[in-house]
Amino acid sequence: MSADVLAKVTEEDVQRFQEEGAVRLRDVFDPYWVDRVAAGVERNLAEPGPYAKFYTPQGNPGFFFGDYCNWSRFPELREFVLRSPAAAIAGRVMGSRQVRIFHDHLLVKEPGTIERTPWHHDQPYYCVDGVQVCSIWMPLDAVPRDTCIQYVAGSHRWGQWFMPRRFVDQRNYDYEPGAYPSVPDIDAEPEKYTVLSWDLEPGDCIVFHALTLHGAPGNLSLERRRRALSTRWLGDDVVYAKRPGATSPPFPELEGALQPGDPMDHELFPIAWRRSE
Question: Could you give all domains of the chain from N- to C-terminal order, each with its CATH number?
Fold first, then answer.
């Protein structure tokens, strides 16, 4: 199965990921995987985990929900992480010999949701260092460009990390003063940036680097849901790291188990794919 899917991931796709930091892949997940993930997502919505967040203020229209680290709680998501082509796709675009699951992140914007996802990039939130860190953003509903997640092309190559931001109020994390600068105001000077976004159908995905700046508009449609599962993947060069404040996910199990610079060899992050020699 993975070999058939990887044939759809071209050298041009890999180059685009490396140069622009995000690439859309068409029709790489068959209906079985879309349906399995959709079933897991509905279970997650019904049974939120300890890290669940409700980002829509009381009284506002719509419903913006986020949750993460649930792939081991729901068999549908566990099957997707360990058996779908996702890990192989991550390995292909990152050029990694093997791939570990880092975590999953569910993001749902129901019809009429006005809340934006703020501009940010992921790796400053994470307890990992390395170049081979990526996400696969998999929509379960048709996503028109005006609702799709947006990426600043090439921002993963700026050589600059920015302060993590809270989704609930878009304030910076309480990291040590001066740890990182704030994310630039992308919307204030759009002429300075090339912003990537696409129309997507179920079965498509976006693969993006953990340092690529991205954000997303609300879902102003009154009929169309926007459910997406983002799975995070680690390649060969990734090691454990400390940040100047709390990380997200927090992974308290790693305290004392790993030291900065250690490989991510822990039961929380099983190897999901190895390259065939």
Answer: 2-270 (2.60.120.620)
